[in-house]
């Protein structure tokens, strides 16, 4: 009776459950013979809860899977025959659902019909677009699951502890989602999933998961893949003793530490990836213990001990090796590799030197070997199985050996950024997929075999010395190529002779800079997928043709048309443009406004006229705006100061007038450079600049700004360059600052040609922290660490050694102070001697009195010193001879007296350094000192030549200090040697000045000889 009641009760429950299912989902066609109706309905309901579409950036999937689902998933058909569905042959229950790459778009909710498929043993939803879907606890219902793959589908949220219910799981892949995994969840999964063989969690967030939670992983585990997961701390050593582990990938976890067991290794490991981790690695120890290893990735790692050269003995089973970016030096140790089995070798980003080995043929056997000619050593067989060779970013030289061109399986060859010379030989096989030889010294024509590489997808030959005339039609067989780089060679590209030829539709990148072309390549006309186009430094003239507007219309983000002869660009149609470079053309129109998506906009060195249109305010994403060297006028729009992402505002050398924008908002931490030099701006310096906490360069020179010294700028923590030259600044500079260390990073301060008065700001000289040391651990340029620096280079106009020059690529060791042509009074502070990093110091044309301080002797890095046209008195301190870097000295037009010091650099200075000081005597002046009995050298021919032609510091002053007079020299901090000065003089003065230079050199040489003779 009891049993019958129980059976009856279960039957009622079964009936009610299936009735509810039938009511929830449409009934299948009665002809369905195998698939259970409830599961068929659940599957259809699940499919209909999503839309199908393309997934942005998903190159892995095609449309075939989606089409098969659409065709086979039909109501009234057997669901066991649907694409991606498998059923048990006995029970006809759905046991496998594979929807990877189905391009599903939508969200899986907790009441999804997916969770009614409780008999599933395998579920694959990878490579879909399930954005917003949580990793639900309902997945824990699939207690029969053996395989679960949810990777690359944009799941998010925390890993629920219910996953630990899946005790039958053999493989679990949750990679490339937005998941967070904490210690407790991971620990429960590790403890309960005792059958697990593969645990794959690439790029999940395991920041809060401690490595010790992996301690009890199943001994049956064959694959543990946790790359770029944020895992940090000490990795458990016992995992290296798991008896069945074949794959261990921990790469990309930079704070993950660990070491290897010294004994009892039992794993048959095939793949080990530790790149970009903090493991302490003993490569010799690894080699001795991992006898079965096939693939080893140790790029950017930390090695035990010092490894000046790459020497080791790897297992002979190694087929793939990556030791990139480890600062290894010396030659490539070919004897360490088993060349017969090696298929993949990557040694990029090291300091490897020398030449690649050549081929030695044993004529008796007919076999080929690699031969090291420098050491007269046979290295082994030619690696005929090599498919991938990556040696870029090293110091390798010599020619590319012939054996590299005859490898039958070579797919990837990367030798860029080395010093290879010679020609590119003919490839013997058409196996190449990726070829990059950029930035070497290769010459000669492009070999014909490259145009036969039918599988080639990536071709980069830029920045070499390749020559010859080629036509784009020669690339007609390269139908799969998506990246084509030919820039910066000696090539002449014939792009328009073959009207019917078109470049591939899927072409993504085209680099044709400096290819001697005069028209836009018409072969581009169908390349709608183009995202990057560089045709700079050519002879293209006129306008942008309208047919080009359809090229990359939806995808183009980089367009470089700079250094051509364009006269107009019209309205630019590309909606996704991010980087637009129109520098150095002949554009004569009003300022064209690029699309609102633009990040970086260059249009300097053109002939633009008119005002900046108000539509520029739509460019709210701008980071770099360079409109310099044009004829733009009007006022600067206030909205530019409001751009929240703007890093560089370069508007110099135009005709803007009015006030500097006052709209720099609070919290502006992006603006790094403001250059308004050479305009007609008036009014005060806006105090809202204080809101720009990361400002590094402020150049307001050569305007009409009327203000007192903006002392409040001293609180800007990052300011390195302050140029206020040639304005109407006035008043004293009060240094009674409440800030303990004003201008903490200032390295260039130019207040010249204003109306400042009073004494020098003594406190500044005592606290200029960045000028105290002339040395740097590493030579850097301003902005070098920033993304946009690849496109924008900071520059500033400075007076160096009497000449105005534009300084490009400002080095972190360049420091200078220029207070010349003001009305400063009083004495030179002794504290100036603390600034040992100074390269240049100019206090000329003021009203300074008193003696020259002896503390200047400490400025051992100083290269030019100008104290001329003041009221200095007393002797020239003999201690100044200790300034051994000094190249230019001007003490003229003062009231100095006594003997000129002798020794070191003082033997090279001529009369111009001292004229206008009647009380001075001694070499090089003709006036001898009473107690100086040494024979002075007679005036040289050069003295007369200088006097006759007036080549003295009066000329240098006129040349170097006139407001608005700029010598067109761009230097990346150059020392102005005689050789370089000769080059300059040829440009501005002709051969007459060359004779002056020769006389100057002869005089300096003779003076130096006499100084040495006296000092013996």
Automatic annotation (TrEMBL):
Annotated signal sequence range: 1-22
InterPro entries, per database record: Leu-rich_rpt, Leu-rich_rpt_typical-subtyp, LRR_dom_sf, LRR_N_plant-typ, RLP23-like
Cellular location(s): Cell membrane
Leucine-rich repeat-containing N-terminal plant-type domain mapped to chain residues: 36-88
Transmembrane spans: 955-976
Membrane topology value: Single-pass type I membrane protein
Pfam families: LRR_1, LRR_6, LRR_8, LRRNT_2
Keywords: Cell membrane, Glycoprotein, Leucine-rich repeat, Membrane, Receptor, Repeat, Signal, Transmembrane, Transmembrane helix
Family (UniProt): Belongs to the RLP family.
Identification of the protein by name: Receptor-like protein 7
């Amino acid at each position: 009776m009891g049993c019958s009641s129980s059976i009856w009760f279960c039957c009622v429950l079964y009936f009610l459950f299936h009735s509810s299912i039938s009511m929830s989902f449409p009934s299948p066609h009665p002809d369905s013979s195998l698939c259970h109706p409830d599961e068929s309905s659940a599957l259809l309901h699940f499919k209909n809860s999503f839309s199908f579409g393309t997934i942005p950036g998903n190159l892995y999937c095609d449309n075939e899977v989606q089409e098969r689902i659409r065709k086979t998933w039909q109501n009234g058909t057997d669901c066991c025959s649907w694409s991606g569905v498998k059923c048990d042959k006995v029970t006809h229950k759905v046991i496998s659902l594979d929807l990877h790459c189905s391009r599903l778009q939508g969200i899986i909710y907790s009441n999804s019909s997916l969770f009614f498929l409780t008999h599933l043993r395998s579920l694959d939803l990878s490579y879909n677009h399930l954005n917003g879907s949580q990793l639900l606890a309902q997945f824990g219902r699939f207690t029969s699951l053996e395989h679960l793959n949810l990777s690359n589908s944009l799941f998010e949220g925390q890993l629920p502890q219910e996953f630990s219910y899946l005790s039958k799981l053999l493989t679990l892949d949750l990679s490339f989602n937005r998941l967070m995994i904490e210690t407790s969840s991971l620990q429960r999964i590790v403890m309960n999933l005792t059958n697990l063989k593969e645990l794959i969690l690439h790029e999940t967030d395991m920041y809060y998961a401690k490595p010790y939670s992996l301690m009890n992983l199943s001994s049956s585990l064959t694959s543990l893949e946790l790359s770029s997961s944020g895992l940090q701390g000490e990795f458990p050593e016992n995992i290296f003793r798991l008896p069945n582990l074949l794959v261990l990938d921990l790469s990309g976890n930079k704070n993950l530490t660990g070491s290897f067991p010294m004994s009892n290794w039992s794993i048959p490991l095939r793949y080990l990836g530790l790149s970009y981790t903090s493991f302490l690695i003993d490569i010799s120890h690894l080699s001795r213990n991992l006898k079965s290893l096939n693939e080893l990735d140790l790029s950017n790692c930390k090695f035990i001990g010092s490894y000046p050269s790459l020497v080791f003995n790897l297992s002979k089973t190694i087929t793939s090796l990556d030791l990139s970016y480890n600062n290894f030096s010396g030659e490539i140790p070919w004897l360490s590799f088993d060349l017969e089995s090696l298929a993949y070798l990557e040694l990029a980003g090291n300091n490897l030197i020398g030449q690649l080995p050549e081929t030695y043929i044993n004529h008796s056997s007919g076999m080929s070997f690699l031969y090291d000619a420098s050491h007269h050593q046979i290295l082994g067989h030619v690696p005929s199985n090599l498919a991938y060779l990556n040696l870029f970013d090293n110091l390798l030289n010599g020619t590319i050996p012939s054996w590299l061109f005859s490898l039958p399986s070579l797919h990837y060859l990367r030798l860029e950024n080395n010093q290879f010379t010679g020609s590119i030989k003919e490839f013997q096989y058409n196996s190449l997929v990726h070829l990059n030889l950029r930035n070497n010294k290769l010459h000669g024509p492009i070999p014909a075999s490259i145009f036969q590489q039918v599988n080639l997808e990536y071709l980069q030959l830029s920045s070499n010395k390749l020559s010859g005339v080629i036509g784009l039609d020669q690339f007609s067989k390269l139908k799969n190529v998506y990246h084509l780089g030919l820039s910066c060679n000696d090539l002449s590209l014939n792009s328009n002779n073959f009207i019917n030829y078109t470049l591939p539709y899927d072409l993504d990148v085209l680099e044709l800079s400096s290819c001697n072309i005069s028209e836009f390549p018409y072969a581009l006309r169908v390349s709608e997928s183009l995202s990057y186009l560089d045709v700079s430094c050519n002879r293209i003239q006129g306008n942008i043709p309208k047919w080009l507007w359809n090229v990359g219309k939806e995808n183009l983000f980089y367009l470089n048309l700079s250094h051509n002869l364009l006269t107009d660009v019209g309205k630019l149609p590309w909606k996704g443009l991010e980087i637009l470079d129109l520098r150095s053309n002949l554009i004569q129109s009003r300022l064209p406004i690029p699309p609102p998506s633009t990040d970086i906009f260059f249009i300097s060195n053109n002939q633009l006229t008119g005002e900046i249109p108000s539509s520029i305010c739509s460019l709210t994403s701008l980071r770099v705006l360079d409109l310099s060297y044009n004829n733009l006028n009007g006022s600067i729009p206030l909205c530019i100061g409001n751009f929240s992402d703007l890093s560089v505002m370069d508007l110099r050398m135009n005709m803007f007038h009015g006030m500097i924008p006052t709209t720099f908002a609070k919290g502006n931490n992006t603006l790094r450079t403001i250059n308004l030099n050479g305009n007609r701006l008036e009014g005060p310096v806006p105090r809202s600049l204080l809101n720009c906490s990361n400002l590094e360069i402020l150049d307001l020179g050569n305007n009409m700004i009327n203000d007192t010294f903006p002392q409040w700028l001293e609180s800007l923590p990052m300011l390195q360059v302050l140029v206020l030259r040639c304005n109407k600044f006035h008043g004293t500079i009060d240094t009674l600052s409440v800030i303990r260390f004003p201008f903490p990073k200032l390295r260039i301060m130019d207040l010249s040609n204003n109306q400042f008065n009073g004494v020098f700001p003594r406190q500044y000289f005592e606290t200029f922290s960045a000028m105290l040391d002339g040395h740097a651990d590493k030579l850097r340029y301003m902005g070098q660490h920033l993304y946009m620096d690849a496109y924008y280079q900071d520059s500033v106009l400075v007076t160096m050694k009497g000449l105005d020059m534009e300084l490009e690529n400002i080095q972190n060791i360049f420091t200078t102070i220029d207070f010349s042509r003001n009305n400063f009074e009083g004495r030179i502070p002794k504290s100036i001697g603390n600034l040992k990093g100074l390269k240049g110091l100019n206090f000329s044309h003021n009203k300074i009195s008193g003696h020259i301080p002896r503390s200047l002797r400490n400025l051992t890095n100083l290269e030019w010193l100008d104290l001329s046209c003041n009221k200095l008195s007393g002797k020239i301190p003999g201690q100044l001879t200790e300034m051994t870097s000094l190249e230019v000295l001007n003490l003229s037009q003062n009231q100095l007296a006594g003997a000129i010091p002798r020794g070191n650099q003082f033997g090279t200075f001529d009369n111009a350094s001292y004229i206008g000081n009647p009380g001075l005597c001694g070499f090089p002046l003709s006036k001898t000192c009473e107690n100086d009995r040494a024979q002075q050298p007679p005036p040289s021919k050069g003295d007369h030549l200088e006097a006759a032609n007036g080549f003295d510091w009066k000329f240098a002053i006129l040349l170097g200090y006139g407001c608005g007079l700029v010598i067109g020299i761009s230097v990346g901090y150059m020392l102005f040697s005689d050789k370089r000065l000769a080059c300059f003089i040829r440009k501005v003065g002709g051969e007459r000045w060359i004779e002056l230079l020769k006389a100057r050199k002869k005089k300096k040489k003779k003076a130096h000889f006499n100084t040495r003779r006296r000092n013996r």
